[in-house]
# Entry
Amino acid sequence: MLGRGAPRPKEYVRYAGRSSREELGDARLGPALMDETAIYSMIGEDGFIRLVAAFYGQVPADAILGKMYPPGELAAAEVRLRDFLIYRFGGPQRYIEERGHPRLRARHLPFRIDQEARDRWMQLMNNALAKAALPGEAEQFLRAFFEQMSTFMINQQ
# Structure
């Protein structure tokens, strides 16, 4: 792992003060196309609101992901994902202030996330990315992030 203050290899994207290599083990996100904190500057809160709303608009009717959300939990889940993405990509720190460190794998352990669930999540997120109509560079960056992070979240064979 890289120590605090150590130079970060350019090919790794920063993740909450650590390189993605540290957060995801040896999984590589590939070349950084831009400083990830520029995403918030590029699409703003409105872009993340559109993206996350487009994603969660699909979830209730989905045969795989819809079952993972107890009735009445979708609105809160939408806020959590939106605030996480805003924090993660350079916006206000509401997520950290309200929930602390993301601990994504630990928070998702109660849910069965296998390859099929991961692939469906990506399918819905790809649909949401298309619907949100974000600038191409931001969409490309977010898609790469979601591809890696969704694979990292698999907790079942």
